[in-house]
Design a protein that fits this description.
With about 325 residues, the chain is α/β, with parallel strands linked by helices. It has nine helices and 14 strands. The protein is globular, with a radius of gyration of 21 Å.
Length: about 325
């Protein structure tokens, strides 16, 4: 090349840096939000379907030598979105991207992370293996169902807890203090609920539940003082809505004055929205790790965006800066 300086001047301003953002079809609105906050456009890519349903992908600009962030939550339709993620990763790897980070705001299959009965799979590990094999060099994710899933990947995982974002919203609407009790709807969520209770100067309550069948909930016991208090239920996932609705009913029976619910990932499958609508939950606050189509939008469901925090995390990963210092000054979660 005779005059490299001249060529560099022809590179558009936003392409002088080697950061590239791409989005699959799972949550393009969140991807656009992240792009806006970063001030980096989404790279052009097509991810379509052959007539038999197989996925085809074409990345329409060079990613050679680039630091690529591919945004694709593995939310419903889960198998489609996982497969699309894998196929795009393969395309990026074969296009000679320097480093590929799979940004997975919601990691589907996380609830199948151990064998509860003989001859069951550990699907959370299988999906982690597939993502690594397909070409991801790193993963950036939000509020994993259990943090030990980080170890299922043989590549670095940056994990953003959902709690700090939810805590800010709770504080902004005046929740907290002696008349507020943060409630974990199951034993697995106690670490997050305790951290939130500390942040809100509130007390803590814990529900022990069991699942007689898949997707069914039975509440066994509630530990903690509810009488006359505002209860704030906190969960990582709201799927059928069964856990939150059953918990709200018991909390009101135990004397709670009102019940708010927070869940990072709004899977909201089947009749979930209807179940939430008729439940004793005053408001359900979720995030946009999973898109909420118009038919799932109720006046009592409010959506917070994770775009700013994901944009900042991407900026830090790209610049080799710490991601944990985004929140660890004021967030301590004991997940033991
Ligand atoms: C389970 O352990 C999770 O933390 C959630 O509690 C669960 O996924 C919620 O499911 P559902 O809304 O179907 O009760």
């Amino acid at each position: 090349m005779d005059n490299p300086g001249k060529d560099a001047e022809t590179v558009p301003q936003e392409r002088k840096d080697d950061l590239r953002l791409l989005s699959g079809n799972a949550n393009p609105e969140l991807a656009r939000g992240i792009a806006r906050h970063l001030g980096v456009p989404l790279s052009k890519m097509e991810a379509g379907r052959f007539s038999d349903g197989e996925i085809w992908v074409r990345i329409e600009e060079s990613v050679r030598g680039a630091d690529v962030f591919l945004i694709q939550p593995t939310c419903p339709p889960t198998a489609e979105n996982i497969m699309e993620l894998l196929v795009i990763l393969d395309a990026l790897k074969r296009a000679s991207a320097r480093r590929i980070t799979a940004v997975i705001p919601y990691y589907g299959y996380a609830r199948q992370e151990k064998k509860l009965k003989p001859r069951e799979p550990i699907s959370a590990k299988l999906v982690a293996d597939l993502i690594g094999v397909a070409g991801a060099d790193r993963v950036l994710t939000v509020d994993l169902h259990v943090q030990s899933i980080q170890g299922f990947f043989d590549i670095p995982v940056d994990h953003i807890p959902g709690g700090p974002l939810l805590a800010e919203d709770m504080l902004s609407k005046g929740l907290g203090g002696a008349d507020t009790v943060v409630v974990s709807p199951d034993v697995g969520g106690v670490g997050t609920a305790k951290a939130l209770a500390d942040r809100l100067n509130a007390s803590l309550a814990i529900i022990a539940k069991r699942r007689p069948e898949i997707n069914q909930v039975e509440i066994i016991q509630v530990i903690g003082e509810l009488e006359g208090r505002r209860a704030v239920l906190v969960d990582d996932i709201v799927d059928t809505g069964g856990s939150l609705a059953a918990a709200a009913k018991v909390l009101v029976e135990k004397g709670a004055s009102e019940v708010y619910a927070y869940a990072t990932h709004p899977v909201l499958s089947g009749d979930a929205v209807q179940r939430i609508a008729v439940s004793q939950i005053k408001e359900l606050v979720v995030t946009d790790t999973i898109p909420l189509p118009p038919e799932k939008r109720l006046p009592k469901i409010r959506v917070l965006t994770v775009a700013p925090v994901l944009a900042e995390a991407i900026r830090r990963v790209h610049g080799n800066l710490s991601v944990s210092t985004l929140f660890d000054r004021y967030w301590e979660e004991d997940t033991q």
